[in-house]
Recover the amino acids of this structure.
């Protein structure tokens, strides 16, 4: 059975083709498997790819599949990719990966020019990094005994994909000093990150403020698992029961995920929204768009994702939503911001987002022993109820702050940089802090992170006449 998974800048759609799909035109030859795989690639891309008209007329199908896939992509395409193991691709979409369990950003070491430090942004619960005692704000200086510099930190970052030793320093706000720690050994393991990282309610200066840190639009550890979404619903039901009058959603480390989960979160936040209101809408290539519109089981309704009725909706309790953003905020995170804007005021605080206004699908062959490849081509653009999708250069915050400092408060601490800015905007009172840490810290180029290539993911497409 042929499998298709739709993903739009952080959004995943799952669909099944029929068992009687046409036999590939090229017969598998174990002496030359590239022709077989590449024929499958070009066949699927010619049907689904958003820029199908840009595919070369006579591509070289003798290339290895990685190079062949790259050779047929449009110059406008920033996000399509292919993997030689579709199961790894599917796991990555659900947030399941072999991981150390910490999010890291690389900074210039202002006190030691030429050196680089890896700053821990947050530690995932239940991960090897948590068991090793790592905390937000820790600064990694050495990997496997080697000092990180601007010439080797990318290679050392790659060494952290397997068992490794790190040395790090930790800042204390009480003593205003850094302490050397480590070395510690960390063994990456495969685990699923629960994206519901933190939720709390602050009673601050007479304001009841709900705060929600959400790090990935994932339904659960598998596409059929809804445990993370159910937990999200429970969090907002509590916000509604406690009758918050302000809401802060922290998406600064959220690279995207499934459109259905983004729709769920939007339905919990949107002010005055109903199940008849459009949250997002898609535009495919001209041929595919025509097929969809002419298909009686699909039509224009298929191109739209509408809000859902949610008993935990807090839209009637708040007059705007504050969203904290960063350089990693992408895909379904941007979809959420853009999808809410026609219905309420969205006030962004932080850094400009990545700019993923496009959609992709996961294509793979589940029952073909000769083809384990999976690809994630862009298949659509995505806009809000007003058709607005012009954020390819990222969404610009209302209050800009690049959130760079060597000294980080824990997430949820009202003195933490972006949270304190949101609280000040809400209450007019700036939470007490030792100082605003403008210490000249600057980021260096971040090593490649495949999670930032995740487009929005779609769900359960009725294939009908679109069988492929």
């Amino acid at each position: 059975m042929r499998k298709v998974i739709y993903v739009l800048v952080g959004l995943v759609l799952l669909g099944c083709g029929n068992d009687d799909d046409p036999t590939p035109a090229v017969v598998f030859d174990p002496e030359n498997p590239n022709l077989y795989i590449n024929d499958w690639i070009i066949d699927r891309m010619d049907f689904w790819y958003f820029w199908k008209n840009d595919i070369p007329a006579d591509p070289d199908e003798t290339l290895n599949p990685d190079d062949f896939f790259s050779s047929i992509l449009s110059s406008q395409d920033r996000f399509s990719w292919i993997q030689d193991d579709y199961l790894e691709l599917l796991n990555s979409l659900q947030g399941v990966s072999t991981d150390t369990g910490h999010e890291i950003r690389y900074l210039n070491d202002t006190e030691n020019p030429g050196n680089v430090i890896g700053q821990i942004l947050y530690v995932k619960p239940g991960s090897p990094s948590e068991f090793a005692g790592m905390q937000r704000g820790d600064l990694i200086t050495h990997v496997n005994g080697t000092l990180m510099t601007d010439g080797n930190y990318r290679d050392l970052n790659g060494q952290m994909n397997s068992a490794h030793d790190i040395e790090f320093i930790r800042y204390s706000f009480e003593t205003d000093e850094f302490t050397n720690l480590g070395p510690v050994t960390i063994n990456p393991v495969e685990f699923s990150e629960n994206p519901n990282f933190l939720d709390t309610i602050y009673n601050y200066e007479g304001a009841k403020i709900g705060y929600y840190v959400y790090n990935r639009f994932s339904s659960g550890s598998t596409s059929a698992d809804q445990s993370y979404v159910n937990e999200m619903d429970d969090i907002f039901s509590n916000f509604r029961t406690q009758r918050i009058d302000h809401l802060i959603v922290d998406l600064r480390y959220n690279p995207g995920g499934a459109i259905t989960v983004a729709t769920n979160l939007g339905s919990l936040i949107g002010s005055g929204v109903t199940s008849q209101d459009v949250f997002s809408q898609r535009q495919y290539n001209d041929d595919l768009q025509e097929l969809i519109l002419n298909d009686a089981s699909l039509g224009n309704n298929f191109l739209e994702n509408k809000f859902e009725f949610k008993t935990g909706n807090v839209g009637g309790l708040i007059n705007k939503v504050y969203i904290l953003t960063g350089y990693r905020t992408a895909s379904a995170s941007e979809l959420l911001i853009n999808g809410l804007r026609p219905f309420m005021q969205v006030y962004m605080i932080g850094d400009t987002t990545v700019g993923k206004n496009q959609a992709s699908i996961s294509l793979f062959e589940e029952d073909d022993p000769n083809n384990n490849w999976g690809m994630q081509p862009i298949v659509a653009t995505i806009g809000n109820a007003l058709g607005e999708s012009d954020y390819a250069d990222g969404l610009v915050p209302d209050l800009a702050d690049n959130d760079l400092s060597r000294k980080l408060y824990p997430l949820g601490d009202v003195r933490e940089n972006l949270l304190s800015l949101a609280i000040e905007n809400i209450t007019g009172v700036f939470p007490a802090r030792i100082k605003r840490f403008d210490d000249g810290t600057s980021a260096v180029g971040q090593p490649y992170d495949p999670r930032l290539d995740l487009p929005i993911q779609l769900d359960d497409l009725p294939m009908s006449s679109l069988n492929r």
